[in-house]
Specification:
The chain has helices at residues 28-31, 111-124, 133-151; strands at residues 38-40, 48-55, 61-69, 85-92, 97-98, 105-106, 160-166, 169-178, 181-187, 192-199, 208-210. It has 219 residues and is α+β, with helices and mostly antiparallel strands. The chain has a seven-stranded antiparallel β-sheet with strand order 2-3-4-10-9-8-7, covered by helices on one side. A two-stranded antiparallel ribbon has the order 1-11. A two-stranded antiparallel sheet has the order 5-6. Residues 1-23 are annotated as: Disordered.
Length: 219
């Protein structure tokens, strides 16, 4: 798969699995990106919040996430069925290129990169109840490998397609859903890949738009 490495796939919640793995971040990392950030368009009037950015091996910002709605908690929590959230992942699009030290190459990114990061993000807040620590680790490892394989086969039977607006332009997305939530991924005319995942909000009603001032999200 032409994709970024698995950096940015967030670790599970802490011991006990009762808190969200996402801590709200400052805007500094987002401002260092050379690409535009995407979120839900202005039709969404709920809370919006920064999550995290990740850097590539050459130190440049590779991707990051923006949250919308309720801050997600791990599956198995009593409040999970009431949560309504969507997380939008923006991935810088670039070809294979040489590493800064000239000894190798940095991997290309693709729609599969966005699909993988969205799938990993959903897993990071998906913990079936009743599992002890060892079983949770095994479950996450297994599901993570499955998400990786699914992202590498976007034309396979596990994915369907739907068209959603991006900056007002109908754009094709790869889409799949499970008992834990939904995941989608596509590319924009602005030259970035967009992934998203969520629960409690229908993916079919979403629309995406470039964020004009990411600093407003740090308020």
């Amino acid at each position: 798969m032409e994709t970024t490495s698995r950096v940015g796939a967030q670790p599970p919640a802490g011991e006990g699995g009762q808190s969200s793995p996402y801590a709200r971040r400052t805007v500094d990392g987002y401002l260092q990106a050379s690409f535009p950030w995407y979120g839900l368009d202005e039709a969404f009037t709920g809370p919006r919040w920064l999550m995290q950015v990740a850097t590539a091996a050459d130190g440049t910002v590779a991707h990051g996430s923006i949250g919308h709605g309720d801050a997600p908690s791990v599956r198995g929590d009593a409040t999970e069925d009431k949560e309504r959230f969507a997380v939008v992942v923006t991935v810088a699009a670039h070809p294979v290129r040489r590493s800064p030290d000239g000894t190798g190459h940095l991997e290309a990114t693709s729609v599969s990169s966005a699909a993988w990061l969205a799938g990993a993000g959903l897993l990071s807040i998906t913990w079936p109840g009743g599992l002890d620590h060892t079983l949770r680790d095994d479950w996450v490892d297994q599901q993570t490998e499955t998400a990786w394989a699914l992202a590498d086969d976007l034309s396979g039977p596990d994915w369907s397609t739907l068209s959603l607006p991006v900056d007002g332009v109908p754009t094709p997305f790869h889409y799949r859903e499970s008992e834990f939530g939904w995941v989608l991924a596509g590319s924009t005319e602005a030259g970035v890949h967009v992934g998203a995942y969520g629960r409690g909000m229908s993916a079919y009603g979403l629309a995406f738009a470039e964020i004009r001032d990411i600093r407003a999200y740090a308020a």
